[in-house]
Amino acid sequence: MEQKAKYETPLGPQKMGPQKKGFLSTLREFGPGIIAVLSMMGAGDLVTSSVSGSNYGYNLMWLLAASLIIRFVIVNVMGRYQVCNLKGQSILEGYNDVSKYFPWFLGIAILISGHLLNAYMINGAGQALAWIFNFGSPFLWSVIVVLVSLFVIGRDVYNTIEKIMKIFLGLLTIALLGLAVYALPDVGGIIKGTIGFSVPDNTGAFGVFAVALSLIGAVAGSMANFLYPYYVREKGWNGPFYKKLQRNDLLFGISAAIVINLAIWIVGAEILRPNGIEVNSLEDISRALSNQLGYLGGIVFYLGAFGILYSSVIGFANGFPKVIIDCLHIVKKERREKFGEKFEDDPLFKWVSLFILVSPIIWSVPGMPGFVAMAVFVTGLQAVTVPLVAIGLLILANKSSHLGKHKANVVENIVLVLTTVLTIWVTIQVVVGWF
Asked: What is this structure's pTM?
């Protein structure tokens, strides 16, 4: 039996993290990073990576690399705050210490984001299943996706979701990496695109700025970044002794995201682009793969696409309500006193979860905006929220009163500052574009 020591904090004695283990044993402990990253990826990564590859080859690969580095830094700081803060706070309680308006702003933003993000996840999952089974309308399958998800989300389901997400990760890696290997990627082009920082001329259905904005929104600016510290809390990692395990857990999840995003990008650059196919729907990608690989190519792609999309559906429907109820408990302290620290014990948790899962089905009704156009718009829209989130995190990550010696280091501060400046500029461009 593993021994766990205890140490003292202002909150009293807490358990020490697990003793050093072998690689496979440590790998089995990973979970929050896998759940959060697969939830974060969703259609945003699927669409923007394929659109970027099909329209611009490998020229914008550096944007993907930069956005994933930004995501790791931002989400790792959030996760470390959950594990190491001296006040035993959630990340949103920390934001509240920066400004009492943050819980209001983030609660509303996450509620809207949860609805819109799940809208095209459910839409895309329905399209994928309709193609795989070759009967019924995408709308019918979207309804089935929602109904099945009702039996997955709910109270005390962390372990179930973790197991499901690990299965999806294996499915995604095999399916999409297999397609990328078959496409015979141009390794030199990938390296040049990653370190070349080139900005090509606008081509295709979506311009460079729209794609760049979508990448920033999907990766660096996603409200889904807030899910990770709540899954860390659910896992039971609490105290500085879990700091290394938490960091490696997220690093493993981000590494998986790099592999999957790279695979999707390669498919766009090596299969869609040479065939002159612009990505306006999931069917565009599938058609090119079917031409190259036959019916099996389409099946493999749609299995991978379904894995990405459905993992986000259940991740959002279970995770976002935790963040929203936390915001509510910060604003209405009497609710926390009444229902306790466990978010699921608040009756509103169920209704928020149902709203984020069920209400988006209206966007799957025939005649509503297309999957790809909606994905690019929603992920780009999220970039507008990044400046406030980044500024708040920059302040919070450097509070010695909250993090002590675990506050942000020089590299993290540089990334946070640059991200803040970049996203302020992007937001100004978006607002100017609206007018």
From this structure: 0.82
